[in-house]
Amino acid sequence: MMKKVPMRTCIVTKEKFPKMELIRVVRTPEGTVVIDKTGKQNGRGAYLKKDVKVYEKAQKSKILNRHLGVEVPDTIFEELRKDEEV
Fold first, then answer.
1. How confident is the model at residue 86 (pLDDT cuts 50, 70, 90)?
2. Does this model's pTM top 0.85?
3. Contact present, 18 and 10 (Cβ < 8 Å)
4. Radius of gyration of the chain (CA)
């Protein structure tokens, strides 16, 4: 039997993707914002499509700030873009 693939929605494009195809950004219980590579980190998470254009749109529109309820530092977006260029 096939395992059910968890689907998640990108907060920028509103498209649904398998969880593994998205990148999760988390506000930890301590209030810091981190990129969750494992998908298992504690805290409030938001999913983004792995696309530099999506990251830029998220940064401009501050949608991540609204979803996570904190100010997301620019370093997070820089790190996301760096990961995509690899």
1. low
2. yes
3. no
4. 13
